[in-house]
Amino acid sequence: MREASDIQAANFDTFAVCMIASWYISNIGVLLLNKYLLSLWGFKYPIFLTMLHMLSCLILSIVVRLTGLVPRQHIRNRRHMFKVSVLSLVFVVSVVGGNISLRFIPVSFNQAIGATTPFFTALLSLCILRKKETAEVYITLVPVVVGIVLASNSEPLFHLWGFLACFMATFARALKSVLQGLLLTNENERLDSLNLLLFMSPIALVILSISSKLMEPLAFETMLSNCKSSHIFGFVLILNCSIAFLVNLSNFMVTKCTSPLTLQVLGNAKGAVAVIVSILLFRNPVSSTGMIGYTITVFGVVFYSEAKKRSGKI
Asked: What global pTM score does this model have?
C-alpha cells in the first residue's frame, strides 16, 4: 500500500515538474517569438498579432473545456458579464501595450519594466481598494523603482515609444489584478484563469478586430503575403498563437498542482531567465549599469514577495 502511495507521489511530482517546465517554456517562448515577428521579421502589426492570439485562445479554450480538463463555470448574469467585459478591456490594453513595446525595445528592457508590476499593484490597491500594506512591503518597493530608473537611464537601445507602451502594459497588468479582486469578490462570480480567458477572449477579439481594422488596415494582406512567400513565417505565426494559449493553460495547471505562491515565485525568476535567453539569442547590447539596475529590481520583487507572505496577504 505504501509503495503504491510512493509511486503516486512520484508521478505527481513528475507531472508538477513537467507543468512548471511548460510554464517557463511557454512564457519565455511567446515573448521571444513576439519579438522575432514584430521586430526582426518586420511584421509591424502588434494589434493584429494580439487579435490572432485571442482567436487562438478562444478556440483552444473551447476545446479544453470540452475535454473536461477544467471545471465548467458560467457567467451568472448581465452584471457578471459587465465585470468580465471591463477586465477584457484592461487585458487588451496590457497585452497590446506589451507587444507594441517589443517592436521598439529589447526583451531584456521589456522584462525590466515589467518587473515593476508589484509597485503599481500596491499603488492601485491603495488608491482603488483603500488597502494599506505594511511598512515593510512599501520599503521593498524602493529597490524595484530605483532599479528600473538605473536600467532606463543606461539602456543602449532606449526608445521612448517602446518605453511608454511597456509602461502602459505594466500599469494595465497591475490594474487588471486589482480590478479582478474588486469586481469578482462574490464567491459565485469567481472564475479560474482558463474560464476567465474563455469569457474574455470573444470580447477582446471584437475590440482588437475593430482596432486592427482602423489602425492596421494592411495587416491581413501582409500576413497572407508573408505566408505565401515564406512557410517559415506561417509556421512561426501558428506556433506563436498556440504558445500564447499554452501560457494560460500552464498557468492554470501549475496553480492547480502547486499553489498561487509557487507561481509568483516562478514569475520572479522567469523575468531573469527571459533576459538571459533574449540577450544570447538577439545579441542586443547591454550596459553593466543596466544589468545592475535590473538585478536590483528583481531582488526588490523577491523581497516584496517575502514581505507580502509574512504579512499574510498572499
From this structure: 0.85
